[in-house]
Amino acid sequence: MPTLTQNISASGVKIMLEENGQTLGRGFLYILHNDLHAQPFGLMEDIFVEEVFRGKGYGEKITAAIIEEAQKRGCYKLICTSRFSNERAHHLYEKLGFKKHGNEYRMDF
Fold it and tell me: What does pTM read for this prediction?
């Protein structure tokens, strides 16, 4: 029995934090659709703050901006992944309302 493929709708946005023309950090939000829900879901990916700017709350600002953008775009949930060893990211995600959901973090809207 052959498998079938069908194109789906998806888009993305890059959110950057800059000061005096210098990028301090960035993150990506991908908006994806599936047949299970009328609303899209968001995938947060690749949150990064330059090492010299870490510990100043910039990662939290970028993550909060991605959460806000996902809500504005009507996502019913926002998911992200993180390496097991990245305890700082886990603490931040949980502080902002993400819940452990298997091996991913999930926020329902």
Answer: 0.86
The CATH number, out of the four listed (3.90.1300.10, 3.40.630.30, 1.10.10.10, 1.10.3720.10), of the domain defined by the range 10-108: 3.40.630.30
- Residue 13 confidence (pLDDT) above 80: yes
Residue-averaged pLDDT of the chain: 93
What are the domain boundaries of the chain? 10-108
How many Å apart are CA 39 and CA 31, to the nearest integer? Answer: 10
pLDDT at 107 over 90: no
